[in-house]
Amino acid sequence: MNLKRFKVAKQASVLGILGNLFLFIIKMIVALLSSSQAMIADAMNSASDILSSIMTYIGNKVASVEADEDHNLGHGKAEYIYSMLISITMIILGGKILIDSFLSLIKPSQLDFSIWLIVVCLVTIVVKLCLYLYTNKLGKKYNNLLLEANSKDHRNDCVITLFNLLSALFYLWGIKFFDGVVGIGISLWIVYTGFSIFKSSYDVLMDKTFSFETKDKVMKIIEKYDEIKKINHFNATPVGYLYQVSFSIFVDGNMSTFESHKIANDLEREIEKKVPEIYLTVIHVNPYEEKDNEK
After folding, report:
1. CA pair distance 73, 276, nearest whole angstrom
2. Which residue from 15, 86, 287, 291 has the fewest beta carbons nearer than 10 Å?
3. Predicted model pTM
């Protein structure tokens, strides 16, 4: 188990909780004082981010539990269960903001412009950009979907708040309808991101195999073994953030048991060493006959 992976995910989730809590408080205060629909939407987005960071923390904690008698392959899929919960929360929240923003276009409320609208937007962009760069780096380095989902959230927030800033400036210049338009844009972005994370989580929970690129890496390693005449029953199953691979190889039937199994053992070790997406390789050895080539 990669303990470092779970440790950095825990640190990132705690930073996310603290950062988003700070942003939610200042956004909601300014939103209530100014009656800005765009800022209210942005504040609710931060509330969603707090929940996402909490779920990241819990999901990471559950996923870090080692394998036991009841869970032979560990608890790694907890990452994807909690990522799916995050996505559902985002979709529901985005739908609520979409309705409120649409109603604000039909019956616009009076926005009380304040310089604090500008200040909060600038502070949010800086904080979210820092969180994005931090979590995106860790998410890619440790192949952690929870962190990648959080990093996308932070990135989206930078863009969302930039439009929120434009909304406040447009209102100052007399363009009042843009506040509701930005609220609608923010809600649609949240819903889109939610569906994107949902699909990624769903694919793993439904045991979708790994990419063609990863399979190609494995096949190229197998091709180096001249003794292997044929392979079949190739399967790749996700277990947490890594994969378990199994397949059968066919070798000369006159080869001794020791020799044939040494080939399988060497191949297993090489695959696990050279393909970081794979943590376990299981190879079954069969004797090769000419008729096997016809199958």
Report:
1. 17
2. 291
3. 0.61
Distance CA 269, CA 280 (A): 9
Tell me how far apart the alpha carbons of residues 222 and 88 are, in angstroms, rounded to a whole number: 41
Q: Within the chain, where are the H helices?
A: 3-34, 37-63, 78-106, 115-142, 145-172, 178-205, 212-223, 257-274
Q: Give yes or no for residue 198 having a pLDDT over 60.
A: yes
β-strand 278-288 against 242-252: which pairing, if any?
parallel
Q: Measured between alpha carbons, how far is 156 from 143 in angstroms, rounded to an integer?
A: 20
For 237, the enclosing helix (H) or strand (E) is strand 230-239
Query: Coil, strand or helix: which one is 250?
Result: strand
Tokens of 176: 């009042």
- Give tens-digit pLDDT for 84-123: 887 887 788 778 778 877 876 776 655 566 688 788 888 9
Report the sign of the C-alpha dihedral through residues 111, 112, 116, 118, in that order. positive
Q: Which residues of 72-89 are buried (b: 16+ CB within 10 A; e: fewer)?
A: eebbbbbbbbbbbbbbeb
Supply 281's token pair: 């390789």
Q: Which amino acid is at 134?
A: Y
286 phi and psi, to 5 degrees? -125, 150
Lowest mean pLDDT: which of 154-163, 196-205, 263-272, 285-294?
A: 285-294
Complete DSSP assignment for 172-187:
HTT--THHHHHHHHHH
Domains of the chain in sequence order: 3-205 (1.20.1510.10), 212-294 (3.30.70.1350)
**190, two tokens:** 């949240």
Task: Read off the amino acid at residue 137.
Answer: K
Q: Are strands 242-252 and 230-239 parallel, antiparallel or unpaired?
A: antiparallel
* DSSP state for residue 218 in the 8-state scheme: H
Q: Which residues contact 241 (CB under 8 A, 6 or more apart)?
A: 76, 79, 142, 143, 144, 145
